[in-house]
Structures are given as C-alpha cells and as structure tokens.
C-alpha cells in the first residue's frame, strides 16, 4: 500500500485516517527553533464531507487513499443501484444510494457526472452544475399572490422539487442550478 | 513562469531593517559588547535531532572536504569566549535545511550575543532593554510551567505520561507516542505558544529538562533547565540559555541527539571537536541568546509572512 510522507502533504492529497478516505484542505507546518516539527492539517472526510483537524509529527507517513475522480456518464437506475459508464473505456460502475445522496434527484440519463472512486467503487457523485428538466407538476400561479414571495413549488420529471416563479407552467422545461437547487431560467425549445 | 527580479520587501521594510541593525549596534556599543565575525563554514556542527544542516564540499589543496554551513554561530562564539573574549555579539546569516514557510527561510539573519557572569534572568533583563529601544515595551515573564498550566491545566514536569497522551489525542495528535518530549512539544505548540505575547512581549523561562538543548539544568527548580524563549504575537523570537559549560554532559547530549536523528532516519551530524576542546579548556560561566532578525522585523513592520521582510527569499516558484 502506498504511503505519503508529511513532506509530500499538499492540498487535495487523499489519505486514509481511521479507515475513512480524507482529502487535505489545509496544511500548516509548525516548527519551533529547537524541537519537533509538526504538520497541522485540516482534512475533509470524503464520505460525509466533515472537516477534522489532525497533527502529524513531521517525517511520519500516512497511508494513501486509493481515490480518483472520473468524468462518467449516467446511464440508468435499476431501483437499487445507479449505473455509470466511462465513455472512453466503456467500463461501467455502480453507485449505491449513499454515494448518490442528493444527486439522484437531478439525473434522468446521459448526464456527465463527476464521480469519485474509492477502491474502484463510486464514493460520491456530483451532478452537472446545471440541468434542464421538464416540470411534471405545478399548480397554476395565482395572480397577485405575494404571500408566497412570488414563487411556487414545482415537481420536476426526476422527482426533485424546486421553487419557480409564478409565470412558469407545468410542462415547461427549466434550467436549475444543482449546487443551490435554485431555478435559473426557462428553456425555450 | 514569471521571474520577478524585484525584491520582496518594500523600500519601507528595507529601510526598517537598516534602522533596526543600526539600533542594535548602538545598543551593543553602549554596553561595550564587542562585535565579532566568525565563519559560516564549519567542519563539525551542533547535533540537534530537529535541525538539519546544509552541507557542502570544498576542493582544498587537491582534496575534497565536507563542511556544514552553521545553523547558528554558537560554537565559534563560545570558542572565542573560552579563549578570553569578554561580552561579544554577532549578526550573521545562518542556514537550516528544509525550513520554509510563513515563519521560515533556509537562510536567515540571526543576532546572537554572550554575556560572561550573566544568568538567564539577567540576560532576559538585557533583551527587555533592547526591546524597549525598539518600541516594544513592558515585556513580561512567566515560567514554562505556569503558562502550560494556565492554558492546559496540566503540569508539564510532573503529569503522568498517560495524561499527556490522552490530552494530545483529544487535541488531534495523529500517532500515539510515548515520547514525553514530543508530547510536550505538541501540546505547547498547539495550545500554548499561539497565545503568548499577544499584548506585550513575553519571556518564558525554565524549560523542561528534556528541552534543555545547550542550557544548564537548574539547581534550584527541579526538572527544569535554565533556558528561556521570547514570544511576541505567538511567534518565537528569541532563544537563550544560561550556558552549559560541562564538556561531558554536553557530549552526552550531542550523542543523544545523534541517536534520535538515526532513529528518525536522518544523517548523523559530525560533532565539532574544536568546540568540544574549547569546553574542555573551560568556557566561562555565561548566558547567551539568539534573536531572529526577520521575525523581529515582522513584528516591527506588521508583516504576516517572512518573505515580506526579506529582499530575495527563496520561493517555491
């Protein structure tokens, strides 16, 4: 198993801590004039996004995490697993519900997603920043309704629910920012 | 890749350094401390498990010889003291491998001076007086033990190893360790030193025995050594000792440091036998201190990165 020495530490380096894969967010070296030097490191847990702080004795080494980021095409879901394909190698990968997390609600098929693999299996799936989806259900906007802030909920073809302006109607295709789950614009055919 | 030819430090900071060096020399002249000049090259060095020397090799009369660049002028200056020099100071460039960052450069400037007959407390008085001439007034002092207990509620000298271990674990030390010195250094650098000298300069004195370096062990306060450091805004600025004069004890400590180096996979450092001979001949009782000029300039200029107070620092570009 590969190891990283503290002098290879840099932002983005992926390593194993307590059995989980982490990525370095920040690396500070604390070096007294006389005495032991330390690397004080902030690390993000790649499974749950939580950030922790750890201090390493400079010169120690840490097990590398077998993690890589790939651009994969979403194919379909069989109900249990979501299937992706590397469009260069045609190799296929299966992501479970945990890896999909909130991402599944934006995908209908053929989108290119950033998939982080850990030990060869999808750990996290990032949908495209913007998706275009059809509104499958939304009540007609009521003119003069200001109590709701000029928006109403709309259910998209993938099941996601976003707030849309009152003038947007069922059956229309809209552009959504998946990072904020916010309506961006109507898409003209 | 852009190769910026201009200096990193602005004209104001270049001027500030000149003013600072002038003030230091005035201060030393007024106190009749003599300026000396010793070489940067040395056949041997001072073994320290955590300081890496830069080595180089020279062609001399047909033979190759390996030298270290000094990590501080200490050995040569103590040879001067042993040969009969009274109070002496030096401002020199020193070299430490693999040290680069916000507070570190591999080549930096050090002010070092020695005072026969002084102990660490009288030397702290003198450093305090120097700081006052630079506008850094009202330096206070506290023992290492008091500071440690204030911030961590544990006695650094007497706490059981297991207490230090669990505290270090809670504060995020990754690997468990049964090395008391390492645990203290982690706890100190993590939870104590960042708080020190925030309002005014702070001297910390009576360091643990295991961190004595070249200081004598205390006769009066058990488990401590007569070493002090100066902190300003959480930054270590100076390191001083009531100097160890015992050649046998000094050799033992050097050999111990070299053993630690080997354990950590580092190269052994050749002991400076000229320096050992000087100790053997007799180093007068004295105290000495080293001050990092760039760190002091950072305080005086308000700069947050060492590169901003140096003309041409080494950069990673």
Architecture overview:
- The complex is a heterodimer of chains A (189) and B (317).
- Chain A is mainly beta and 189 residues long.
- Chain A folds into three domains: 3-63, SH3 type barrels, CATH 2.30.30.30; 67-126, Nucleic acid-binding proteins (OB fold (Dihydrolipoamide Acetyltransferase, E2P)); 130-186, OB fold (Dihydrolipoamide Acetyltransferase, E2P).
- Chain A has one helix and 16 strands.
- Chain A has one helix at residues 97-100, and strands spanning 3-5, 14-17, 20-30, 38-45, 51-57, 61-63, 67-77, 82-85, 92-95, 112-118, 121-126, 130-137, 151-156, 161-165, 173-177, 182-186.
- In chain A, the strands form four sheets. Chain A has a five-stranded antiparallel sheet. Chain A has a five-stranded antiparallel sheet with strand order 14-13-12-15-16, with no helix packed on it. In chain A, strands 2-3-4-5 form a four-stranded antiparallel sheet, with no helix packed on it.
- The longest helix of chain A is centred in the middle third of the chain and has 4 residues, at 97-100.
- Chain A is elongated, with a radius of gyration of 22 Å.
- Chain B is of the alpha+beta class and 317 residues long.
- Chain B has a single domain (11-139, 200-309), classed as Bira Bifunctional Protein, Domain 2 (BirA Bifunctional Protein, domain 2), CATH 3.30.930.
- Chain B is 35% helix and 22% strand.
- Chain B has nine helices and eleven strands.
- In chain B, the strands form two sheets. Chain B has an eight-stranded mixed sheet, sandwiched between helices.
- In chain B, α1 (11-30) crosses α9 (293-301) and α2 (74-82) packs parallel to α8 (273-282).
- The mean pLDDT of chain B is 95.
- Chain A binds chain B through residues 7, 17, 28-38, 40, 52-57, 59-60, 62, and chain B through 48, 50-51, 98-99, 101, 103-104, 171-175, 177, 181-182, 185-186, 188-190, 193, 211, 213, 229, 236, 239, 264-265, 290, 292.
């Amino acid at each position: 198993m590969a190891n990283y020495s503290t002098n290879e530490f840099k932002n983005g380096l992926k390593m194993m801590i307590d059995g989980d894969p982490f990525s370095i967010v920040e690396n500070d070296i604390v070096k007294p004039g006389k005495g032991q030097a330390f690397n004080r490191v902030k690390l993000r847990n790649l499974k749950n996004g939580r950030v922790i702080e750890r201090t390493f004795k400079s010169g120690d080494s840490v097990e590398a995490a077998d993690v890589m980021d790939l651009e994969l095409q979403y194919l379909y879901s069989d109900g249990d697993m979501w299937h992706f394909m590397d469009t260069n190698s045609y190799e296929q990968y299966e992501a479970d519900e945990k890896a999909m997390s909130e991402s599944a609600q934006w995908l209908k098929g053929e989108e290119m997603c950033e998939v982080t693999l850990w030990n060869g299996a999808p750990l996290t799936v990032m949908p495209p920043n913007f998706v275009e989806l059809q509104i499958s259900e939304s009540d007609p906007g009521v003119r003069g309704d200001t109590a709701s802030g000029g928006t109403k909920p709309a259910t998209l073809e993938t099941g996601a629910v976003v707030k849309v302006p009152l003038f947007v109607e069922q059956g229309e295709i809209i552009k959504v920012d998946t990072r904020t789950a916010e309506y961006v614009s109507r898409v003209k055919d | 890749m852009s190769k910026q030819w201009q200096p990193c430090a602005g004209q104001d900071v270049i001027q500030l350094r000149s003013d600072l060096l002038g003030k230091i020399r005035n201060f030393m002249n007024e106190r009749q401390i003599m300026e000396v000049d010793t070489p940067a090259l040395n056949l041997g060095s001072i073994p320290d498990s955590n300081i890496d020397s830069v080595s180089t090799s020279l062609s001399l009369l047909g033979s190759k010889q390996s030298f270290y660049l000094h990590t501080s002028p200490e050995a040569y200056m103590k040879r001067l003291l042993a040969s009969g020099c009274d109070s002496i100071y030096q401002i020199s460039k020193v070299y430490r491998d693999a040290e680069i960052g916000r507070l570190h450069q591999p080549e930096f400037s050090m002010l070092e001076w020695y005072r026969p007959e002084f102990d660490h407390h009288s030397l702290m008085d003198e450093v305090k007086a120097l700081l006052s001439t630079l506008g850094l007034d009202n330096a206070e002092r506290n023992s290492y033990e008091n500071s440690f207990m204030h911030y961590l509620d544990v006695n650094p000298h007497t706490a059981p190893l297991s207490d230090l271990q669990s505290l270090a674990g809670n504060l995020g030390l990754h690997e468990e360790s049964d090395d008391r010195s390492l645990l203290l250094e982690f706890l100190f650098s993590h939870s104590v030193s960042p708080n020190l000298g925030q309002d005014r300069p702070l001297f910390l004195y009576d360091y643990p025995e295991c961190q004595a370096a070249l200081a004598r062990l205390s006769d009066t306060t058990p488990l401590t050594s007569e070493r002090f450091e100066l902190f300003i805004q959480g930054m270590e600025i100076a390191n001083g000792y009531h100097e160890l004069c015992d050649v046998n004890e000094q050799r033992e400590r050097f050999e111990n440091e070299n053993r630690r180096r080997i354990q950590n996979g580092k190269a052994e450092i050749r002991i400076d036998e000229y320096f050992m001979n000087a100790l053997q001949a007799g180093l007068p009782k004295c105290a000495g201190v080293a001050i990092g000029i760039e760190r002091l300039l950072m305080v005086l200029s308000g700069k947050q990165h060492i590169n901003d107070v140096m003309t041409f620092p080494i950069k990673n570009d």
